[in-house]
Design goal:
The complex is a heterodimer of chains A (214) and B (132). Chain A has 214 residues and is of the alpha+beta class. Chain A has helices spanning 20-23, 29-37, 45-48, 51-67, 72-80, 85-97, 118-130, 167-185, and strands spanning 102-105, 112-117, 135-143, 152-162, 189-201. In chain A, a hairpin with a 6-residue loop joins strand 1 (102-105) and strand 2. The termini of chain A are far apart. Residues 1-17 and 208-214 of chain A have low confidence and may be disordered. With 132 residues, chain B is of the alpha+beta class. Classes of the chains: A alpha+beta (214), B alpha+beta (132).
């Protein structure tokens, strides 16, 4: 799977200047993709012991599962563009997996310093969005000062939907899945979840929906 | 007396047993990593020196405390002027609340330290590095 060179995506986490591979223990997404191809053998501790690399590997697996369901022609045409959706998603997967900021977890003990990495939360958001049928999350952004306990944050995700999905319904399902996971796992005060649909992809088997009904 | 390195190994087992913890990740902070590495190196050097001394005195090598028998230190423990600092990175299963698991890990570690560690606890840092 080729990964086109893309400009760094802007982000408000203060780390957008950091090359993604630096945050992945020096590995590139291509290397991690090859590692996945080899069945994660021979074991590489620099990948297996890196939560950021593990987040990328999980995202790659979901991306591959969805890609298998797309028309080859659609993927081919898209990949011939300088800025393909596959390349864009791969780039964003690596960027989003960076550890980023520390998000506090409350504990009454003064000796407790409990946090979640921003990368872990973005990985959670991406997985929640990808779990919605007919949807693939492209990028994920947490806006607001997540390092301050109880501060309001706005979540923005870019997504692709398969042809035939009702976009408004898909966006609602994405929003619901993300909100549910954030409420379960984090203490973030979620002010809003913005879902931007950037691509419509053609599946091998088109779902029968109202869009196709005469 | 339990050394910080031994305590780190014991705490690794305590943390891994907390429900919802998927796995532990090695510490990332370069200073903590360097301290852990230096402690292991010093222990290894001491063991080698002792073994050499024992061999030169016509005795067999010592049976306990060899560097090879020590597990990798995943939980970083440092002690300075009697104050203990612990740093932990974990992955959490999606079936459990990551925030709750984070607190449970802290509480389990604090409980263990109160019973087994000499010195006061200055800080217990727990970082959820992955959920899934």
């Amino acid at each position: 799977m080729t990964v086109p060179e893309l400009p760094p995506r802007s982000s408000d986490d203060g780390n957008s200047h950091e090359p993604a591979e630096d945050a992945l223990g020096g590995h590139t997404v291509e290397e991690l993709s090859d590692y996945l191809d080899r069945g994660c053998t021979p074991p590489d501790p620099s990948i297996d012991d890196s939560p950021e690399c593990q987040i990328v590997l999980e995202s790659l697996q979901r991306l591959r599962a969805v890609s298998l369901n797309l028309f080859e022609e659609d993927v081919k045409v898209e990949s011939e563009r300088g800025f393909s959706w596959v390349g864009s998603i791969l780039d964003n997967i690596a960027v989003d997996a960076r550890a980023g900021r520390d998000i506090p977890v409350h504990h009454p003990s003064p000796s407790a310093h409990l946090v979640m990495s921003e990368g872990a939360v973005r990985g959670l958001i991406r997985a929640a969005g990808d779990s919605v049928g007919g949807v693939l999350i492209g990028s994920c952004k947490l806006e607001g000062d997540v390092t301050v306990p109880r501060a309001s944050v706005v979540v923005t995700v870019e997504a692709s939907v398969l042809w035939g999905e009702r976009i408004a319904d898909a966006a609602d399902r994405i929003r619901g899945a993300i909100y549910s996971e954030l409420m379960k796992h984090t203490e973030l005060q979620v002010e809003a979840i913005h879902v931007e649909i950037h691509d419509v992809l053609i599946a091998r088997t088109r779902p029968t929906t109202e869009l196709e009904t005469p | 007396m339990t050394t910080p390195s031994q305590l780190g190994v014991e705490l690794s087992q305590i943390v891994a047993a907390v429900p919802g913890v998927q796995r532990l990740y090695p510490p990332t902070h370069p200073v903590i990593g360097a301290l852990a590495g230096a402690a292991d190196a010093a222990r290894g050097a001491l063991t080698s020196a002792t073994e050499s001394l024992s061999a030169s005195m016509g005795r067999g090598s010592i049976a306990s405390g060899t560097a090879a028998s020590v597990s990798p230190q995943i939980v970083a423990v440092t002690s300075h002027l009697g104050e203990i600092q612990v740093a932990i990175r974990i992955g959490v299963l999606t079936s459990a609340s990551a925030a709750e698991v984070c607190r449970s890990v802290h509480d389990s570690v604090a409980d263990y330290l109160s019973k087994h560690a000499a010195g006061s606890v200055a800080a217990i840092s727990v970082k959820v590095a992955r959920i899934g």
